[in-house]
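Reminder to self: tokens first, then the designed residues, so the page reads top to bottom the way the pipeline ran.
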């Protein structure tokens, strides 16, 4: 286990067990299970970057579930998903501010010479690795579209 993030998750899992925090423990076990699944399927040892990608995907799934639960009027289920998001985010790098995100987007646009929405892929290719796990990639994609459409 060479990953610092994975070690952090293991320590948090032990602390949650000792402290009797069943909700936190359940979410950490979900994360660990997702990581183990990828390691077994791909026969690899995950690094922090890949772990962040996996947890970012878990956040995205929960945001989509919240959207569906809100539409269906299932506030009880949406509340559970929101609580899980908060726990997962505690293991991710600090979220970027709107100003930081905008600076990353503008730098990527100038670096790629993007002029229209057709260049969206080039810009996203540079922006995504810098923001994954530190912001909602879907939201950031919308900001890029808005800037390129203007």
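Designed residues (150 positions):
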């Amino acid at each position: 286990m060479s990953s610092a993030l994975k070690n952090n998750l293991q320590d948090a899992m032990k602390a949650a067990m000792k402290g009797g925090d069943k909700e936190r423990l359940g979410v950490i076990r979900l994360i660990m299970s997702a990581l183990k699944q990828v390691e077994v399927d791909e026969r690899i040892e995950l690094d922090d970057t890949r772990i962040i990608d996996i947890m970012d995907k878990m956040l995205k799934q929960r945001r989509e579930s919240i959207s569906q639960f809100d539409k269906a009027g299932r506030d009880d289920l949406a509340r559970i998903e929101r609580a899980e998001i908060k726990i997962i985010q505690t293991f991710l790098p600090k979220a970027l501010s709107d100003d930081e995100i905008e600076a990353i987007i503008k730098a990527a646009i100038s670096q790629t010479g993007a002029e229209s929405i057709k260049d969206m892929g080039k810009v996203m290719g540079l922006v995504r690795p810098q923001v994954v796990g530190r912001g909602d990639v879907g939201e950031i994609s919308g900001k890029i579209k808005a800037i390129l459409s203007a």
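The chain has seven helices and no strands.
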